[in-house]
Amino acid sequence: MIRSCILILAAANAASFVCAQENPQTAPLKQAYESIKNNFTKAAEQMAEDNYSFKPTPELQNFGQRVAHIADSNARTCGAIKGERKSVGAAEKTSKADLVSALKESFDYCDSVFNSLTDADAAKMVQMGRGGARPELSTLWGLVVHDNEVYGTMTVYMRLKGVVPPSTAERAGRMGRGRRE
After folding, report:
1. Which single residue of 10, 35, 84, 143 has CA 20 to 30 Å from 150?
2. Using CA atoms, how far apart are residues 156 and 68, in angstroms rounded to an integer?
3. Is the distance from CB of 140 to CB of 114 less than 8 angstroms?
4. Which residues of 123-153 are buried (b: 16+ CB within 10 A; e: fewer)?
5. What is the pLDDT of residue 176?
6. Burial classification of residue 99, based on how many CB atoms lie within 10 Å of its CB (0-12 exposed, 13-18 middle, 19 or more buried)
7. Domains of the chain (ranges, CATH numbers)
């Protein structure tokens, strides 16, 4: 049994190594996307419903609005790459269930874009509204950077409400610690 598990893990590792060799420009992007998608989704699920209306200061958006912003932004960006106008309508939603659903829908929609991306697509130009045309690779890196930026601010919201952000909890678990960092 253990030998079988080791062989399966070795095969999976080899496959990911081969994929990374075939697409050295896009493989790191796909890893970064999976990381932020997981952290963002876990954060949205982890925050309590009553904290979705929380904002640290009056001039900031509340937690739910931050989730909605990413859901709508993801759909819009991936839609542009697909040559479509896509919206998940998250800005009009207020309940946790509706916002988490819209967020997951946006990531599901983007999954096909990231999963089909190859280095050959990296230079393909994408029309991004008033921003003009940009290469697909930089457009998708922009999405990942933007999602990470918003996730970073949302971790402050979470900490102010006594919630350990998923990225910190995961890192503490890997390091064998249960304390907050």
Report:
1. 84
2. 17
3. yes
4. eeebebeeeeebebbebbbebbebbeebbee
5. 54
6. buried
7. 30-174 (1.20.120.450)
